[in-house]
Design a protein that fits this description.
Layout lengths: L2 H15 L7 H12 L4 H12 L2 H7 L2 H16 L3 H14 L29 E3 L3 E5 L5 E5 L14 E6 L3 E6 L4 E5 L14 E7 L2 E6 L4 E5 L11 E7 L2 E6 L4 E3 L16 E7 L3 E6 L4 E3 L13 E6 L3 E6 L4 E6 L5 E5 L6 E7 L2 E6 L4 E5 L2 H7 L18
Antiparallel strand pairs: 1-2, 2-3, 4-5, 5-6, 7-8, 8-9, 10-11, 11-12, 13-14, 14-15, 16-17, 17-18, 18-19, 20-21, 21-22
Length: 399
């Protein structure tokens, strides 16, 4: 969508509803949502944040320079936006709203349109624990559902959260200021993260927690006592039963210290986007080109699983998110038979999250869909219908 397109949309809103439309945040956003369409998720959310921060009223009532700085600060503090995203949306609206404002707005140079609201592709809007599920809302608050015997769902007071992670019985939250918060079981110090700063992403596995710093180094807490001292220039952490993989900025792989010799083939990989480790299928690698490999090879049935943007483990199989927004699920039955199916009516999916026989998807409307690959789990733990009430969910997410 071009700036001219935006101008036409704003002009249409004023023509139909008058300039006072901008004083009603909820109504303004609803109209924009209808006019822009469902595809412009990132821009739509940026606009919503600007309106909720009082952007238009600030521009009308305050000194322009002060208003601009105030809006950028509010966007950063209240909505966990990067400075580039906050500046972009403020600059965009300063220019586009000029015909409708009571004063001249300076022509600010617009940054490039392709900006991310959050700082990293690793930031996960949804986290799945052994018996609990967690999600970040766009306002930085967190919702949790499920077992709470270790207070792993005690997240009501969390604010300014941009990502979450969940282990078996603990929950980790990453704040917009790079600090980390935790709740739940802490018998192995998996929640001992209170003093960390400059964290870019958080991960949780069973009784372990890993925090990835902005500089590409990582630190681990918990039962496994993982040695990550040699991790440098790492952009993503991926779990393995014997340790963790670190995917570096150049697409190569580093592994946590330990005796998992059967996985040493991973050290020779290049162009890696993601690695998942399944109990039945071993390690599966996703490349930046959208292809997947198993232990460095490509089984024939992987031909049905191409043009992929993300993969996730479902314990008894795995799921892939294709670049067209559809999802395919590979499950292993008790007789080891492979069953590949399309997720029913799942369209325009932007992120998938899998763990402990559950699969949750985030679509372009920021709504969640969920399924379980094991009917026995559902009988023991209850329905996943609660995720339908969790929206709008976090701005961006990856497994």
């Amino acid at each position: 969508m071009t700036n001219e397109d935006f101008t036409n949309i704003l002009q249409k809103m004023v023509d139909e509803h008058g300039e006072s439309i901008f004083s009603n945040s909820q109504k303004t956003y609803a109209i924009l949502l209808d006019l822009i369409g469902q595809e412009e998720t990132k821009q739509r959310l940026l606009i919503r944040h600007f309106i909720e921060a009082g952007g238009y009223s600030f521009l009308q009532k305050a000194n322009t320079d002060v208003a601009i700085n105030t809006i950028i600060t509010k966007l950063q503090n209240e909505f966990s936006l990067e400075i580039t995203a906050a500046t972009w949306v403020t600059s965009l609206f300063c220019n586009l709203l000029q015909p409708f404002a009571n004063k001249n707005v300076p022509n600010i140079l617009l940054p490039k349109l392709e900006v991310d609201i959050v700082a990293s592709d690793n930031l996960s809007a949804v986290a799945i624990g052994k018996r609990h599920t967690v999600a970040v809302l766009v306002d930085g608050t967190v919702l949790a559902e499920g077992a709470n015997n270790f207070l792993q769902c005690d997240v009501e007071s969390w604010r300014k959260i941009i990502a979450v992670a969940a282990g078996d019985d603990h929950t980790i939250g990453l704040k917009s200021n790079g600090q980390v918060i935790a709740t739940g079981k802490n018998d192995s110090d998996q929640c001992a993260v209170a003093n960390l700063e400059n964290v870019a992403a958080v991960y949780a596995f069973a009784d372990d927690t890993i925090c990835l710093h902005n500089d590409g180094t990582a630190v681990a807490f918990g039962k496994s006592k993982l040695d990550l001292s040699h991790f440098e220039q790492v952009k993503k952490i991926c779990w393995h039963p014997e340790g963790v993989y670190g995917i570096k900025q150049d697409g190569t792989v580093v592994m946590s210290a330990g005796g998992w010799e059967e996985e040493q083939w991973a050290k020779d990989l290049t162009d890696v986007s993601q690695i998942i480790s399944t109990y039945i299928n071993g390690s599966i690698v996703l490349t930046n080109s959208g292809k997947i490999y198993k232990m460095g090879e490509q089984p024939s049935y992987f031909a049905q699983l191409q043009d992929i943007s993300a993969i996730t483990d479902t314990t008894d199989g795995f799921a892939v998110l294709r670049k067209d927004g559809s999802v395919r699920i590979l499950n292993y039955m008790r007789d080891k038979q492979r069953i590949i199916t399309d997720a029913d009516n799942w369209q325009n999916i932007t992120a998938i999250f899998g763990k402990y026989k559950r699969l949750i998807a985030l679509n372009a409307d920021q709504k969640l869909l969920a399924t379980c690959t094991d009917s026995d789990w559902l009988r023991r733990n209850g329905s996943l219908d609660f995720v339908k009430k969790w929206h709008p969910v976090g701005i961006k997410g990856r497994t």
